[in-house]
Structures are given as C-alpha cells and as structure tokens.
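User: I need a structural model of Thioredoxin-like protein from Emericellopsis cladophorae for a docking pre-check later this week. Nothing fancy, just the predicted structure tokens so I can convert them on my end. Input:
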Amino acid sequence: MSDKVHTINSVGELDALLASHTYVAVDFTATWCGPCKTISPVFANLAKTHAVDAHFALAKVDVDAVQEAAQRYRISAMPTFMFFKEGKQVAVNGQAMIRGADPRALGAAVEKVSALAAKRAGEA
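Assistant: Understood. Predicted structure tokens for Thioredoxin-like protein:
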C-alpha cells in the first residue's frame, strides 16, 4: 500500500484526518472483499499522484476493524468511496458516494477534488 494512503484504525484517527485536511477521500473496504482488492492498487496510485499535503488526503477504513466509522456513514456495500470537504460529506460529479470498484468514476472524482485542493493550496 502506498504511504500516501492513510490507514485509519479508529474513528478518532478518521476525525483527526478530516479536521486536518480540507478534502479527504475515504475508501471503506474489507479484507475479505474481492472487488476491494482489485481497486486497492488504483486507489493507491491515485493517492501517489493526486494527494495535496494538508489539503487533500486519501484514506482507507477497514469496515470490520473500524465498525463505528462504517456505522456512522451507513456503509452497506464494499468498496464504498466517500468524499469530504471541511469534515462534511460532499457529492462529487453528482454522486454522493461511489459504490463498487469503478476505476473510471473513482479516478474522475479524485482528479476533480485534487484540482480543487491544488487551487486552494495555491491560494494559501
């Protein structure tokens, strides 16, 4: 896994990441999930190329290990990708979340959020 992907081990870690970055993309995943394993390298590569220090972070949450986070965001299918701005869930490209291993939709959403984060970083 890329060191650019934050592995979340508790709700506190997730809350801290949401508080410390303007934008966050979260991959809600499970170790037993085949499609999750398929999309994981895609997510890691997107993190390597699109993370913006202090402005856009990409994170993974294992729904079995951090059940409280999965319950908080009502995760019922894996993988589910959610995007946050200033700690609040936001829709990207008209989707409140991306369910399933859809590399095209995930790539488009990450690229859009990364561009917004880069613009904000340039203004800082």
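Before docking, keep this in mind: Strands lie at 5-8, 23-29, 56-62, 80-85, 88-90, 98-99.
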